[in-house]
């Protein structure tokens, strides 16, 4: 991933240009926090959890996710029906209102990953590309850990 060096360079450029009253870093309109993934063994299936915070003044629409380590990443929702726990694929377009967030958590909405190209052990990380309407992509590194 080459994103991190680019981010660092732009941060330094901003810091160098800003006067004493200028904040060094503008608030990112889309903030992704706490991304983590369950370990995966021979089944090569796992789930990712994270929170997307929209700090923009306009709504944003989450349209899907992908990872170079998975054949497919899709939005699922876990729900209980008649005492049984089911997972259902969700229409992946999710509108996040201004100053609202989309919470992907255990027992709720999550990103289901199938066709993993390798095992995921605790301590690994998995790159996730989150796509939003208007050609916005946010790349995050999700930590692999046990729940
Ligand atoms: Cu699922």
What does this structure look like?
With 147 residues, the protein is mainly beta. The longest helix is centred in the first third of the chain and has 15 residues, at 3-17. The chain contains one helix and ten strands, in the order H-E-E-E-E-E-E-E-E-E-E. 20% of the residues are buried. It has a single domain, classed as Immunoglobulin-like (Sandwich), CATH 2.60.40. The site of copper (II) ion has 5 residues, from strand 8. Copper (II) ion is lined by residues 47, 76, 87, 110, 112.
What is the CATH top level name?
Mainly Beta
Structural class, by secondary structure, is mainly beta
What number is the mean pLDDT? Answer: 85
| Radius of gyration from CA coordinates | 17 Å
- Please report the distance between the alpha carbons of the first and last residues: 26 Å
Annotate the secondary structure layout.
Elements: H1 3-17, E1 30-37, E2 46-54, E3 60-66, E4 70-81, E5 84-89, E6 94-96, E7 101-104, E8 109-116, E9 125-132, E10 136-144
Parallel strand pairs: 1-10
Antiparallel strand pairs: 1-2, 2-7, 2-8, 3-6, 3-9, 4-5, 4-8, 9-10
Bound molecules: copper (II) ion.
Copper (II) ion binds near residues 47, 76, 87, 110 and 112.
């Amino acid at each position: 991933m080459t994103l991190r060096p680019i981010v660092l360079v732009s941060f330094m450029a901003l810091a160098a240009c800003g006067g004493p009253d200028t904040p060094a870093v503008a608030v990112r309109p889309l903030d992704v926090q706490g991304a983590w993934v369950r370990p995966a063994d021979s089944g090569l299936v796992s789930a990712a959890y994270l929170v997307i915070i929209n700090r923009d003044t306009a709504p944003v629409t989450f349209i899907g996710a992908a990872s170079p380590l998975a054949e497919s990443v899709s939005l699922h929702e876990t729900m209980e029906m008649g005492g049984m726990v089911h997972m259902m694929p969700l229409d992946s377009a999710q509108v996040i209102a201004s100053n609202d967030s989309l919470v992907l958590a255990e027992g709720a909405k999550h990103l289901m990953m199938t066709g993993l190209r390798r095992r995921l052990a605790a301590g690994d990380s998995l790159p996730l590309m989150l796509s939003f309407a208007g050609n916005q992509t946010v790349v995050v590194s999700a930590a692999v850990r046990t729940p």
